[in-house]
Amino acid sequence: MARIVISENVSVDGVVEVGEGFDRGDWYGRIGAADREAWAKLEYDEALGADALLLGRRTYEWFVAQGWPSRSGGWADRLRELPKYVVAGTTDADSWANTTVLTGPVTEAVAALKRERSGEIVLYGSGRLARALLAADLVDELRLVTYPFVVGAGERLFGATDAVWPLRLAESRTVGENLTRLTLRPA
């Protein structure tokens, strides 16, 4: 059985998806070169340890629009060779090698994928999908890279809830000079 790992970039105030006026590229443009380099190495190492990627439709389309299917370099090569599973009804799976579109109810499709595969299935971005998988108790690990700024408005990984999700800290490490990665697992 595979392990589902959510890998998210988050602001200090918990925002994972921002709205108008602060696009995804601003996350990286607001940190220094040393932090960008350390973050890229962290992400590359994570991709090397992954057995598959899981993406929501909008995150998949963002990767395609940013040219990842044809980029060169170790990280791009690794992402290209990994099996990619996209939760979406209208995504063109031919846009990026080794992509499969999951169909049916989201949590059922991901639960079946988890049973069928082994190793780590890493979910990049995809805030709505991450929240759905957390609510369905399908997540085995959270890896949160915290950026040193407050965004204010935007989608948060954990929305309003009456539920208590006990987690335990598995690892905490500094990435570059200003980023922190917390690795959390269900308690």
UniProtKB/TrEMBL annotation:
This is Deaminase reductase. Gene3D superfamilies: Dihydrofolate Reductase, subunit A (3.40.430.10). Residues 4-179 form the Bacterial bifunctional deaminase-reductase C-terminal domain. Pfam families: RibD_C. It comes from Actinocatenispora sera. InterPro entries: DHFR-like_dom_sf, RibDG_C, Riboflavin_Biosynth_HTPR. Coiled coil: none annotated. One of its GO terms (biological process) is riboflavin biosynthetic process. GO terms for molecular function: 5-amino-6-(5-phosphoribosylamino)uracil reductase activity.
